[in-house]
C-alpha cells in the first residue's frame, strides 16, 4: 500500500480534506481527495492519461458539483436555445465559451486535450489569459450541450457567450497596439543604424561623403514617416482630443515636439541643409508606444463587466405555457409569466414563489452563507440559485428592473466616480505641461528677437528637454514594477492607481463569507446527546445526506460512508429521513427530528454552538447536535495582526447573521464587526468611514460586495470570488492568501517612496535643464540624450522594486498551499467528544 | 562606399518584409495568448494510463 501523502488538502481542488478517506489513483500513486466530485474528476484526468496536468498546473483545480447533480446542460441540445451562441460554417459549428476556473496554462492544456480527444471536435483553443475557449465541432456528431457537459465533467463551469458579442474589442485593441509597436521598433532600429554611423563619424572626425549623407537622410525620412504617421497616430489623436476638451494632457507637448521636429527634419532633409532629428523622433515614439502597450496589457487583465453579467443570468428559462413547459431565453420573459425553476438552476428574473417551498442560495446577492427558505408569496431574485426542490414562480421584474441589474448600475456609478487620485495627478501634470509650453513659447519669442537662426533649435531643445518624460514615467514605472512584485506574491493589480491608494489605507473592511472564511460549509463540532460516539453520529449523518443535493449536505461529503442509507426521503426545508443499518433516523432542524420520536418541542441548543446547528435523532432519542459552519481561513488572524502592526485596523462588514459574524471576528482577532448589512448599507458604511477621514480598503468576494468595492479607496477581491466582484475590484488575491495583504501594503508604501525619489530626480532634471536649453546651451541631440538618461535613471531606481528572479523550486508549486483549518480537522472533531 | 546605394534600399525591402510578417502574425492571433503556447511542448500523444506501478514508500 502506498504511503499516504503528507498533506491534508485535496489533491485535486486544494480544499481541506476534513477527514475524507477517499483516494484517487493518479500516475500510479494514491492521492487523497475531499469528495466524490473531485474523485470523479481526478480519475477522469488520470484515466485519460492527462495526469501531467497535476505536475504543471499553477493553481488548484475547481471543486466540481456532485457527479450525481442535475444535468443543466441538456437544454443546450435544443437548436433554438443554442442558436444565439453558435456560428455555423458548412457542416461545422463553433462557439466561444467563458470558462469559470480556467486559471492557468495547465487548465487550458487539460481542457483542450480532453475536448480534442472527443470524436466530433474539430478544434479547441483555450486562452488562459482571457479565460475563454473557442471550440469547433461537426454538427452531425455533437451538439453544444455535449461540449458543455464534457467541460463541466472536468469541474470547470462553461458559459456560452453570445456569438454577436465575440467581436472582441480587447483583442482588436491589443493587435492594433502590437502593430504600432512593431512599426515604431523596426523604424527606430533602422534610423538608429544610420544615426550611429553619423555620430561615429563626427566623433572620430571622419567625413561622410555628401551623397551618402543625403542618402541616409532620405532613407531615414522614408522610415520615420510611417513611425510618425502610423505608430504615433494615437499621440496626435489624443492631443487633438484633449485640446478640443479644453484640457492639456501629456499628448499635447509630445505631439507638438514630434510634429515640429518631424516637419523641420523633413524640410531640412529635402533641402539638404541643417539638422535632422529622425533618430530622436523614432526612439521617442518607440518608448512611448512601449509604455502604452505595457499599460494596456495590465488593464486588459480586468474581467469585463459584460462577461460577468453573462455568467450570472442563466441562458434559458422554463416558461409554463399553455402547452406545458417551453424553454425561452430570459430576455423573452414578461412580467406575469410563470417560470419553472429546477434544482440547481438560477432564477432568470425577479419573481415570487407560486407553489412549493424553495431553498435559495442568495450568497452572491446578500452574502448569506447558508441557503434561505422561501415560501409561497415570498420574493426571489434573478441571479440567485434554487438549491432546494423545483418551484414555480411568477415573474415580477425582468431585465433592467431586477435587483441584480440595479446592483450593476450602482457599481457602474461607483466606478465612474472613482479616479479622484488619477484626476489630481492629471491636473498636476497639466499645470507642468502648460508651464513647458509657455516656456517654449517664451524661448522661441526671445530667440526670434535675439538670433532668429537659433530660435528653432532652442525651442525644440526646450520641448524635448523639458518634456516631462522622466516625470511622466516616474510614478507609472514604479507602479508597474510594484505590479510585477505584487503579482509574484499572489496579488494581481488590475488598476495601477490602486497601489497609491493601498499605501495610504488605515482601515481594512473585510466581508466574511468567502473572504475571511472559505465560503464552503463544513462540519464543525458534533455534540453527542446519547451514548453514540461523535464519529458514529457523523457516519450516520453522512449516510443520510449522501443522496441529498442540499448545500448543507455537501459538508458531509468528506465523511466516509461504509453503509449507504435506504428509503431516503427528503423533506424540503426540514431535513432528511432514512434507514441506516435497519434503524430509522432523521437529520435536520431540531423540530423535524423531535417529531420522529413524537415530541413537539426540541431540546434547547447547548450554549457555545455557533453557525447552523442540525440535529440527528432516531425514533426514541435525540442522538447528536452537529454544528455546520463556514471554515475560517487559517491565515486570517495572522493577516489581521500584520495589518494592525502596519497601522491598519480591520473590520468585518457582513450580510450574515450576528452569531456567525461574531464568531469569526473573535477567531480572527477583529474588534469591530457589523452583521446583516445589505449591499447598500455596506456602501453607506464605507462612505461614513471615508467622511470620518479614513482611507478604506475593502476586501470581498460576492456580488453583494461589488458596490462597496467600487466605493472604497482601494478594493481587493478574492481570487475565487464572483466575476462581478473582480470587475469592480482594483486588485485580486489570486492565491487567496490573506497574509499577503500586509505584504502588499508594505510594497505599496515602498513603491510610493521610490516613486517620490523618481519624481524629485525628474523634476530636478527638468527644471535644471530647462533654463540651459532656453539659453541655447543644449543642442537637440544632447536634449534627446539627456531626456533618455533621465528616464534611464528613473528606471534603474525603480528596478529595486522588481521581484528577485530566483528560480523557484518547482515542487512546492505542485502541492496546494492550503492547510487544514484548526476547527474542522478530524482531531478537533474527536476533541469535542 | 557606393555599395551602400544598393545595400540600404535592400535593407529597406527587408524591413518591409519583416514588418509585413509581423502584421501577418499579429492578425493570425500569434500574439493573443503568450502563456499557453509555452505548454505546447507537453502536448505529446496521450500515454495510456500506467499499469499499477510498484509501490513506492
Q: What this model shows, in words?
A:
The complex is a heterodimer of chains A (833) and B (57). Chain A has 833 residues and is α+β, with helices and mostly antiparallel strands. Helices cover 47% and strands 18% of the residues of chain A. In chain A, strands 17-29-28-27-18-25-26 form a 7-stranded mixed β-sheet, sandwiched between helices. In chain A, helix 8 (233-244) packs across helix 9 (251-271). Chain A is elongated and about 110 Å long. The two termini of chain A are 31 Å apart. Mean pLDDT of chain A is 75; it is low at 1-6, 66-70, 301-306, 413-422 and 805-833. Chain B is mostly helical and 57 residues long. Chain B is built from 1 helix and no strands. The radius of gyration of chain B is 24 Å and the shape is elongated. The model of chain B is unreliable at 48-57 (pLDDT under 50). At the A-B interface, helix 4, helix 6 and helix 7 of A face helix 1 of B.
Quickly list its features.
heterodimer, A: 833 residues, alpha+beta, Alpha-Beta Plaits, 6 domains, seven-stranded mixed β-sheet, six-stranded antiparallel β-sheet, 29 strands, 47% helix, disordered N terminus, disordered C terminus, B: 57 residues, mainly alpha, 1 helix, 0% strand
